[in-house]
Amino acid sequence: xxxxxxxxxxxxxxxxxxxxxxxxxxxxxxxxxxxxxxxxxxxxxxxxxxxxxxxxxxxxxxxxxxxxxxxxxxxxxxxxxxxxxxxxxxxxxxxxxxxxxxxxxxxxxxxxxxxxxxxxxxxxxxxxxxxxxxxxxxxxxxxxxxxxxxxxxxxxxxxxxxxxxxxxxxxxxxxxxxxxxxxxxxxxxxxxxxxxxxxxxxxxxxxxxxxxxxxxxxxxxxxxxxxxxxxxxxxxxxxxxxxxxxxxxxxxxxxxxxxxxxxxxxxxxxxxxxxxxxxxxxxxxxxxxxxxxxxxxxxxxxxxxxxxxxxxxxxxxxxxxxxxxxxxxxxxxxxxxxxxxxxxxxxxxxxxxxxxxxxxxxxxxxxxxxxxxxxxxxxxxxxxxxxxxxxxxxxxxxxxxxxxxxxxxxxxxxxxxxxxxxxxxxxxxxxxxxxxxxxxxxxxxxxxxxxxxxxxxxxxxxxxxxxxxxxxxxxxxxxxxxxxxxxxxxxxxxxxxxxxxxxxxxxxxxxxxxxxxxxxxxxxxxxxxxxxxxxxxxxxxxxxxxxxxxxxxxxxxxxxxxxxxxxxxxxxxxxxxxxxxxxxxxxxxxxxxxxxxxxxxxxxxxxxxxxxxxxxxxxxxxxxxxxxxxxxxxxxxxxxxxxxxxxxxxxxxxxxxxxxxxxxxxxxxxxxxxxxxxxxxx
Length: 682
Fold this sequence. Notes:
Layout lengths: L10 H7 L11 E9 L5 E8 L11 E14 L4 E6 L2 E5 L10 E5 L6 E6 L2 E5 L14 E11 L2 E5 L2 E4 L15 H8 L12 H7 L15 H10 L4 H4 L5 E3 L5 E3 L23 H4 L3 H7 L24 H4 L11 H4 L13 E8 L8 E7 L13 E8 L6 E6 L5 E4 L2 E5 L11 E13 L11 E5 L4 E5 L14 H8 L12 H7 L22 H10 L8 E3 L5 E3 L32 E4 L5 E4 L1 H7 L5 H9 L10 H4 L7 H4 L18 H9 L2
Antiparallel strand pairs: 1-2, 2-8, 3-4, 3-9, 5-6, 7-8, 9-10, 9-11, 12-13, 14-15, 15-19, 16-17, 16-20, 18-19, 20-21, 20-22, 23-24, 25-26
Helix pairs in contact: 4-7
């Protein structure tokens, strides 16, 4: 890539004025207007191609590829269906690879078709592939396109779809089980197979039951493959020692055995959100169910229920597995009940009503309510754990105190209690302090389906947070950097540390700049790792992209290694987590450096900007760059180059061009050395 595209962002506009494509004319819009089947049985596709603002484009500015597939509906009422492509190829494992010579059929794109200009911006594509003479004219057919436009160092893609019935009937049958929007809640922007395939409706045209990976023998049918990928390390076959792998283009090996789904696998509706999203309930199948439950041998019946019931096809699935039924039962919905969302749970709702005696040196008194969702009172002594925390100051937490309040809270009314801390606020306490309640109970669910073992659920309460002015005139809440809603877009519902910590405002009280895991490390393991929130969360999500190990020791001296984490979105797209699109420099003076003891027992102090940036950019050159631009007193000069408006701003360095709506296609940012050498050579 020509990295000069990173210098002087407005240069693109100036070039546009000289006769080249202006930035305002970037983008790509493609619409299929019609599809007909000629007498020679070759489909003809009429389509338009425009830039982002609606100007027609010449064929010379784009590359065009199409495919066509029919939709086979097995049960129109239940919605079971799959595509079957007319464009196929035989894939053979080359010599020198395991399973050399193995062959398998795969759906593919049409090749060597004919393009004709009807008018500027409107074109006709005639397939090279002819449909069979006996093709079913009564079934829904779908044409999918893969159109690409290159503008300087940016690439734009479009995946237009067109549904029709060749005999002229209305399109009734469609397959819309999963939407692209649901995928992008975690993935930020699907961009597969080199970036050109971005719509689920396009993916399913190729990833059909007819497509198989010859190297592994695994089907790449969307239904099976996607379930298995998202199950990852929890697949029974993977846990039994057999990796789940797919061999792709140019013999590239893709191992999904370490994938960790960020929420409960039973939360099917997180993906199944299309008009036919309920098909997993109404049309259970060996194909779908066996993809996750791959320790079941349906042919022999081994593992298929207590009776090891054999099943040759899907005709009997609904005889036992009805769509709806009791929670945790054998209905599809029941079997996929997420324990934490069970309707049988009575709910735990806590509220901090008042905090008094909250001046420096005083022991705070907290008045709170604890009830169930029906309004009935709960005594803290009934809970497995119940604690109240105060932490401060909110400008940047430097200390916290958590005390067990389960047995020492005093009842003052029905469902209302008080707790007085045994440890007083520091005599030098300043600003605003946060007070947080956390708690949980272990529940054995009643009315379980007959024959089921006891179902035990850990039920946690949503952490209430109250900000109290200690020396401030008014409470000053903690700054909001990330949002719980954005976390839950992937995680569904945060539930950490035994299901009792689930609100970010609670997380940051403990995970402050002064906290490390040193107290949890077994003897001889070495110094600690910082668990400061920004540092830790960046590292966890960067996962396999990190160059240096990040292992944190938790409760019971248990090591948690995050080096294999596969972030599903774009690490450079900060607003997947942050409340703003791009964090701003310079950071507030309230943000403190982080401190922890390293493996050699030395105290490590990392200035705040470096702590945030180097938590992801952890290679030696990035660390050296940060150190070079920090004085011995810890004063950072990061904002000189990386603040908004500079050529190396955070937005530029992360390739985030909001006005272009192009993120991942701009290539990697230049290194600091490259950046300045290019700038000086302009």
